[in-house]
UniProtKB/TrEMBL annotation:
Name of the coding gene: bioA
Entry's EC annotation: 2.6.1.62
Organism: Epidermidibacterium keratini
Domain of life: Bacteria
Protein keywords: Aminotransferase, Biotin biosynthesis, Cytoplasm, Pyridoxal phosphate, S-adenosyl-L-methionine, Transferase
Protein's name according to its UniProt entry: Adenosylmethionine-8-amino-7-oxononanoate aminotransferase
Residues the entry annotates as binding pyridoxal 5'-phosphate: G120, S121, D262, P325, T326
GO cellular component terms, semicolon-separated: cytoplasm
GO biological process: biotin biosynthetic process
Enzyme class: transferase
Length: 442
């Protein structure tokens, strides 16, 4: 049972001092993390109670190997014994080279070049710059707009934000500052199960016609197509048919647009394939990866591109990709990432396949709840969608009391558990999500 103590000093010190994501300074008090190990977090609440909980969020989808992972700890310690950081301008080092070699070896298609960035959002910024530079190198400087679909999310920095859904995103809060991109309709929703992919064929045909028509009408101003493959993450944990990616690949080829795959959330096994593009058997021209890249130890992202794209940039007037973060290719992050990628390529396929079946079973009873609109699972992603917006603090607190940490958003109570979660952990996550939902909406 949780212990009761005085109001914790950490939370008192935090209040009014630190901004938290999408939260007011005087919003609900956060939980204080005092320890983490395996799939568990040790939390202290504002009322002084302590809770040992399963992290059903993988710390926003990145801590796929759990906490204090011995392999990643060893990689960090070994690199700390050498050097933790050097600038990447004019210098190079083994961790960056080794990680880049691993990434191009496992990526879908003929990836040949890697640009390391600070975070997922920054990697999208770099990819968009790259697309414009590519078109300039091809003699088409007027091609500067991007084509994407509604419902997406690509980050919180300005260029990345311009690619997010114009209705559900943050565009209206920054009038005149966010670039006007081109948005096709959201693809039809799909599901995946024992019988394969299920979706409305007529809806898919209608979407394809609309997408092709929009691209054709704006072909002379477009630089690239940007998309989260198969699963839109923060835009609503929305699953759509792989066939849509094939259409995008064809359109990109028809008009010499770059196809940019934002795999920051979906790469490294999360959807049941090493990369979500593999569901469609297509390869992008540019791919952004992050989150699970370092197993949640340090912030790092990468932009991968084909030889064709790289050669256009390299032979253009400027010859360089115009970006250079201070912590680009940080050696400590790269060393840990290489170890993380090795773990993923060795174990993630089997782990995610098992978790997918366990999530299907654990979340199935939620379909009988009156407040539930939909339940869906893809790989190690489990979603319970309500018929209303979630009372986030109430549902999170109810789940914590059941030994699980979740962070709902919009109308979704969802989980992206660490790949090292056991069957018992997944069952506990499902029971907590259902129990918390029943408690709050009884």
């Amino acid at each position: 049972m949780p212990k009761t103590a005085q109001r914790p000093a950490l939370i008192e010190r935090d209040r009014g001092l630190l901004w938290h994501p999408y939260a007011a300074l005087d919003g609900p008090a956060p939980y204080a993390v005092t320890a983490a190990d395996g799939v568990h977090l040790q939390l202290t609440a504002a009322d002084g109670q302590t809770h040992r909980v399963i992290d059903a969020m993988s710390s926003w989808w990145c801590a796929v190997h759990g906490y204090r992972n011995p392999t990643l700890d060893a990689a960090a310690a070994d690199q700390l014994g050498e050097f933790s950081h050097v600038m990447f301008g004019g210098l190079t080092h083994e961790p960056a080279i080794a990680l880049a070699e691993r990434l191009v070896a496992i990526a879908p298609g003929p990836m040949a070049h890697v640009f390391f960035a600070d975070s997922g959002s920054v990697s999208v910024e770099v990819a968009l710059k790259l697309a414009v530079q590519y078109q300039i190198g091809r003699g088409r400087p007027q091609r500067q707009r991007m084509l994407t679909v509604r419902g997406g999310y690509h980050g919180d920095t300005f260029a990345a934000m311009s690619m997010c859904d114009p209705v559900g995103g943050m565009h209206s809060a920054f009038p005149g500052l966010v670039a006007g991109q081109l948005f096709a309709p959201r693809p039809p929703q799909a599901s995946y199960g024992p019988d394969g992919w299920q979706y409305d064929e007529e809806a898919l045909q209608d979407w394809e016609s609309a997408f092709r028509e929009l691209a054709a009408a704006h072909r002379d101003e477009l630089a690239a197509i940007v998309v989260e493959p198969v699963l839109q993450g923060a835009g609503g944990m929305y699953i759509y048919p792989p066939q849509c990616l094939r259409v995008m690949r064809e359109v990109a080829d028809d008009y010499d647009l770059l196809l940019i795959a934002d795999e920051i959330a979906t790469a490294f096994g999360r959807t049941g394939r090493l990369f979500a593009c593999e569901w469609a058997d297509i390869a992008p021209d540019v791919m952004c990866v992050g989150k699970a890249l370092t197993g949640g130890y340090l912030t790092l992202a990468a932009v991968l591109m084909t030889e064709r794209v790289g050669s256009v940039i390299a032979s253009s007037e400027l010859r360089a990709l115009l970006h250079g973060p201070t912590f680009m290719a940080n050696p400590l992050a790269c060393a840990i990432a290489a170890a993380s990628v090795d773990l993923i390529t060795t174990h993630a396929g089997e782990q995610v396949a098992r978790i997918e079946g366990e999530l299907q079973a654990a979340l199935a009873p939620a379909r009988d709840l009156p407040v539930v609109h939909d339940v869906r699972v893809l790989g190690a992603v489990g979603v319970v969608q309500l018929d209303r917006d979630v009372d986030v603090p109430a549902v999170a607190a109810a789940a914590v009391r059941r030994g699980v940490w979740v962070r709902p958003f919009r109308d979704l109570v969802y989980t992206m558990p660490p790949y090292v979660s056991s069957a018992e952990h997944i069952a506990a996550i499902g029971a907590a999500i259902i129990g918390a939902t029943c408690e709050v909406y009884r």
